[in-house]
Every structure is written in C-alpha cells, then in structure tokens.
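Table 4 source record.
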Amino acid sequence: MTLDTTQQNQQRDHFADQDAIWLFGYGSLIWKAGFDYLERRPASIRGWTRRFWQGSHDHRGTPDSPGRVATLLPDPGATCHGMAYRITPDVLGPLDVREKNGYLREVVTLRFNDGDTAQGLVYIATEHNAAFLGEAPLETMARQIATAQGPSGPNRDYLLNLDDALNQLGVEDTHIRELAHQLRQVDDTTPETS
C-alpha cells in the first residue's frame, strides 16, 4: 500500500550546488524538526492549502489502520503558514526517508514575516500517490485520527500538536482548528477503557 518515494526524491537534486537551502514545514516539521538546522523562521507559501488527506502507514498509523497527516493541495487564493528551516543539503537524505510515504520534494517561494522571500523546498503528497486518502467528513477523519497509532505515536498527538503550534504562531487554519475540535469531541464521547 505504501509508496516509497525516497529514490525519486534523491533524484530531485534542486539546489544541489548550494551550501544551504530553505525547507518549508507545514505539518509535524513545525513542532518536531528532528534535524539540525542553521536558522528557523516563520514563513508562508502562497497557492497551497493544508489538509489532513494523506494516509500515514509508517509513522502515525499502520498499513492495516492508517492515520491521517497533513499534505498540501493547490489553491490559487490560499496562503499556508508554517516554519522555514535553513539546512545543509546532507539533511535531505534522512528527510527523504522520513517523508517516504508518498511525499515528493517541490520548489516553492517562501515568504517570511519581514517581507523577505527565498526559494526553497517543501514535501508534498499529491492525490496521485498510493497513500492518499482524500477528503472525508470531519467527524469521520476525527474518528480515524482518534484510533490510529504508529511507530511515531498516536495520530491524535500529531493533530493536536500541529493545532497548538499553529496557535503559538498566531496562525488561523480553519481546517486544522475544526478537525482538532472534532477530535476533542470524539475523545469526550469515547468511553475510557482500563
């Protein structure tokens, strides 16, 4: 079921001749970098919207019970806020493995809060990858997120940590806020087991 994009990403050697490159994070990379970086700055990209439509069979779920994680969808009028990291190219190898479940490196223009811009990379899982789950009602997605768990922990932690990180950045993301609210309602109505 999973589509390992590691080799495809290693062939996408954008910025190969540079000592440092910018990487845009819009999901777990906002709150859990897990790699060394030279600089970290809040940033945004235009023309993309964040959605929990990508399946996670390797981090926040399993092949039999996939979780849901963030990806980006093209949306001409949208702006997606996140965190930019200036990294050395050697960081991309481990990131390619981390993002192997359907994500591909793409070049984007990052916009920083002070008005500066820079070209950088972002990992995006399009609807054409094998792990793409697509749209579903918020309650359905919340129930899936509430029960999924994988090697990186409970899927619910991913969503709630992302919601908290966006709130700390002062970012209003309606999809994430409403999905997190729905997850908390599911948690409140699910009987605890001992």
